[in-house]
Specification:
This protein has about 140 residues and is mainly alpha-helical. The chain is about 75% helix and about 0% strand. The protein has one domain: Membrane associated eicosanoid/glutathione metabolism-like domain (Four Helix Bundle (Hemerythrin (Met), subunit A)), CATH 1.20.120. Its main location: membrane.
Length: about 140
């Protein structure tokens, strides 16, 4: 398997983690409604009342996985299309996924903001390295 195609697996892993966090969000919301902590009507437009802290945290954790990681999916697809993948790109991709999973788990468990921010900044450094490395490679060898 070429390293370019191998970039699919970190993307798949992050996607599956996103699905699991989304499922957790759904379960947390259903429990909150069943317990009477949130009115079902709240979820029509998210303005009719308030939601629990647990719902809000789960919602933010899920939202975080739909924001910056989009740039990760893009760089991986670009690398695959351009057949630029190699073992360093693959290692960086896995590092990014591990960091995002750790950040998500921190968010959904003990939710220490400083720990979460540190892991987030590390993941951003890895993502930046992916983009900058490809940019420099394309500048050096544009054709």
């Amino acid at each position: 398997m070429t390293s370019s195609i191998a970039l699919f697996f970190p993307m798949l892993t992050l996607f599956l983690f996103t699905v699991l966090v989304g499922l957790r969000l759904f379960i947390v919301r259903v429990r909150a409604v069943k317990r009477g902590n949130v009115r079902l009507s709240y979820f029509r437009n998210f303005t009719a009342g308030t939601q629990t802290e647990g719902c809000a945290t789960a919602q933010r954790a899920y939202g975080n996985l739909l924001e910056v990681p989009a740039l990760f999916y893009v760089i991986c697809v670009v690398l695959m299309v351009l057949r630029q993948g190699d073992h360093l790109y693959e290692a960086l991709a896995w590092a990014y996924v591990v960091l995002r999973v750790v950040q998500g788990l921190i968010h959904l468990t003990y939710n220490n903001v400083l720990h979460r921010a540190a892991v987030y900044m590390a993941s951003m450094a890895v993502l930046t390295a992916l983009w900058v490395r490809l940019g420099l490679a394309l500048l050096a060898f544009p054709g």
